[in-house]
Amino acid sequence: MARTRGVLFVFLLLLTGTAFGTRAFGQLRLPHLPKLPQANQLAVQLAAKRIAPFVTQQDPIDLNWGRVYPTTVSPPGGAFRPRSGQTSLADIDAQLARSNSGIVNLKPGDYEIPIRVYCSRVKAHSALHAPLVYEAGPLRGSRVDVLVAMLSKVTGARLPYSQVQPLGWAIATGMRYSQLSAGQRSLFDRLAPGMRSRISGNFIDQVRDQWNRLGIVGLPPFDSSLDSMGALGQSLKITEQAQSEIISQSNNFDALSASLVPPLDVSDRGTNYTTSPWGEVAPNIYMHTPSLGGTGALFTLQVRVTGNSGMSVPVPLLTSILYPTYCPGCQPLTYNVEDTGPKEDGGGGTPG
Prior knowledge:
Blueprint (H helix, E strand, L loop, with lengths): L1 H15 L4 H7 L9 H22 L12 E2 L12 H13 L5 E4 L2 E11 L6 E3 L5 E5 L5 H14 L3 H12 L9 H10 L11 H10 L9 H4 L4 H19 L4 H8 L2 E3 L12 E5 L2 E4 L9 E8 L7 E4 L3 E5 L8 E5 L15
Parallel strand pairs: 4-6
Antiparallel strand pairs: 1-7, 2-10, 3-9, 3-12, 5-11, 7-8, 8-9
């Protein structure tokens, strides 16, 4: 009887992790112990809760529909009267070519700037046949500096959308430099020189390593726990799958695009989808996208800088992301200033 009680006591201590600590418990191999699926599930839920802040911190692009700039139907200053486009655009292009910040200096006034928009969320829809309402918010995430540096240089490089977008997907999903195709590595070095170290790791690998360091008793392996982690697990699973597709379809842009950006017909969504508000992106600086649709398209960004000094002020031109207000399943969009002249592949101002 005493021997039986002793065995039971040791079993209970092992089960609770108090006998040797969680690290020692994880090293034991006791195949005769019964499986505890409910305990495993509780361990996964606890781990997901603990790891969520780390995922947010390491997320290459931190998407948040609720984090947008203050909006207004009409900014101060009366009717919108843009300056002459050519001179302003040439100056903007020149400033972006000299900086990785996405910030340009503009004098008070109104500006119309052509932009190309990019998908910044894999497995979300691209709107077809009708514009959506978009509200701008601050572009945040662990790789925002890399993405903004790239977008700052695209204009001067005159690159086609079909080259830039796959590299954008690779950055947004957290792939490491060594996982990029040869063409993507060459393009990255051209658009973000000196920034290889910023993408030396893989986002999913970082999360997996953190998972393994949690030391929670009964915690299953990371990959087998994703389906039990709720929305967080599904998001990580989608990201991991997208990384695999970016690698396997590196030479087939059409197939990759069809998989990562399924189209959605929004033509029957009503007139509320046609007028986007102005966003106050910084004090005395307002931005507006009169009409936007799917990824890869060309549109106009309207910018108003208010003030009477006549002195140039820093405008965070490329550090915003555009959220589709009434379509949470659609693409949030990043963008570059677009020169619609001939591209490297001989194309003009159309996607691809």
